[in-house]
Every structure is written in structure tokens, then in C-alpha cells.
Amino acid sequence: QVQLVESGGGLVQAGGSLRLSCAASGRTFSMYAMGWFRQAPGKEREFVAVISWSGGTTYYTDSVKGRFTISGDNAKNTMYLQMNSLKPEDTAVYYCAQSDRVGVVTSLLRYKYWGQGTQVTVSS
User: Fold this and answer.
1) Are 21 and 42 a contacting pair, CB within 8 Å?
2) Are 102 and 31 in contact (CB under 8 A)?
């Protein structure tokens, strides 16, 4: 059974930074794509970023490119999302997820395991 636990969310002013962490257990961490998604109130859950361990590839949705960085530490089975230059529109519950596929996976339908989410609130 795979377990994903997010942490690091909080309240920050616009222009500030936060680093989210996702601790994984229960399955080999480095084989499958790992991603971050977010869901704002009244909106659908959307893709934010993915890291493909097999090739070290990362990919971001356009709205966060240049501001967010996804990374991971295989030894700690932990994935991170460094978020800089935060904007009020980044406010959402952020979820980490693990796919059952390798490579760059952006569709939430391809993710099998999900964390409980962590709230990020950016004030203007």
C-alpha cells in the first residue's frame, strides 16, 4: 500500500515562497512518475508539475514555469515543490500523486495514489 503525505503548506504574501514536501512509502519511489496537482475552490483539480525519475525529466504547467521547481530525493523517498514569486491565483489545496506509469505523465487520470493535500493560501 502506497502512502503519500504532504507538508509545507501555509499562508504567505504575494511574492513570497513556500516549499512543499511529499513523503512516500510502500513502493519503490524512483520507478514511477510523481506529480503535483492543485485544486482551488470551485474549480477542478489541475496538473502543476511532474518529475520522471527514469530520465530526470521535469515538466510544468505554463502558469508556474519559471516560478516553481519540482525535485526529489530518492534516498529519503521525498518529493518537493519549491514555489517562488507566489501569486494569489496560486491559492489552492496542493496534492502530490504517484502514477503507475513511467515518463512524463500530466493527466490526473493516470495517477493511482494520492496524498491528503496541503493548503496554500497567497494573500494580496
Assistant:
1) no
2) yes
66-124 per-position pLDDT tens digit? 999 999 988 888 999 999 999 999 999 999 999 989 889 999 999 999 999 999 999 99
Instruction: Give dist(CA 117, CA 36) in Å, integer.
Output: 10
C-alpha distances in angstroms, 65 versus 44, 69, 74, 101? Answer: 20, 8, 24, 23
What one-letter code names the amino acid at 58? Answer: T
Measured between alpha carbons, how far is 64 from 105 in angstroms, rounded to an integer? 17
User: Contact 25/36 with Cβ under 8 angstroms?
Assistant: no
